[in-house]
Give the backbone structure.
Amino acid sequence: MSLSKTKEYVIQFLTKSIGIPNELEHIYEDIPEDIIKQISTSLTGNDIETETFDHNSAPEVDEFIIWAKEIYEEICKDNNIPAIWKSKWPNGKKFAVALTHDSDSIEVTEEHLQEVKERFSEEDLKESLNNKKNLYWNVERIKEVEDKFNFKSSFYFLTSEYNVSKYKDTLNELNRDGWEIGLHAGFETHEDGDKMNNDIEEFKKQLEIQPIGVREHYLQFNYHKTLDFLERNNFVYDTSLGFREHPGFLLGTSLPFNPPNENWEKRDILELPLIIMDTSLWGYMKLDENEGMKLIENYIENTKEYGGLLTLLWHQEAFLMKKGNIYPKILERLSKEECFVSSGIGIARWWNSRSDVIITVMSDSEKGWKCIIKNVVKGTCIEMKNFDLSKEISINGKGRIIHKSEANGEIYYRIELEGDCELFYV
Ligand SMILES: [Zn+2]
């Protein structure tokens, strides 16, 4: 493929991730080829070194996004105009978390339960053996603990392996209340289009809803092939691309993005890179509860630093394992952070509507600099840096400054928008 198509894709990716006016793509025309190569390689999952993985390593693509934003600010400063960009998350929240639950099983035999009994509390085990409690069906329990913090999440069901039709009403109600019921696509669906179609049909037969979010069982993925199947079936997003053996940034970024097709054209489907999976911590890394929690906390800090998205996979059937302590602890911790917590589809819808917000900067004959903002949705915030302290921002329309601070000869603003508006610089 010609390098120019790749370059075009990467520039579009950077512009969109930062959230600057689309017509400014040209400022990145001179990005060195080796950086284009590094970003494009990372985003297609071809830069993976599981063996030498270091948990302190930064998401390298996200570092390039910060670098590209600094270039933009420099150019604005040189031209004596303000720098303006869209906030990544609603209401100016610092970072985001997608809560997701794969459901590999929904019940087990008593024999199996006896084999793994040390995973559960004595009380749960006793109730389970008396047939009073199914320890592998935790949907309502998870909903209840998430509800306490006003969080929503996604459940993905492996309907090729079991039947959830007896839970149809419960799951449909959850779906209506803002939780997401998505597909956990079974073995081979990542490279067999017919198998994928069958899995979707089976899901629809059992639940009478169309899945629009998906995670592949076992995180099996064939980058272009799987994305083709998913796109053909109108999925809004996928969230399968993550490491199995440990947490981390398989794609170099934690942010949602539209992966490229084989011709380096932007796809419609979004990828939400998977960052932490519960089973990596216990099964592969053999961590104890404290070590696991500490690692999760480090990733929360790291995501905050980059304003990223922490996509967390906590298996539905594992909720009561480790005595059921850890998942509620994570939610408690998140409730103390300034972050946007949502389901996969909640995150994907936000990201798509953020992309639809149009910022246009132009020169106004009277007032010099002018910026028009359109397609504003609830929660939209924009951020600005003003490098000329003698000038002030004025807003024409539904927007208000929610934060203003001055440092190093710059004024930084955060503006919350309630509708389309115009900004001036006077
Ligand atoms: Zn699975």
Remarks:
- The longest strand covers residues 410-425.
- The chain has two domains: 93-351, 358-426.
- The mean pLDDT is 94.
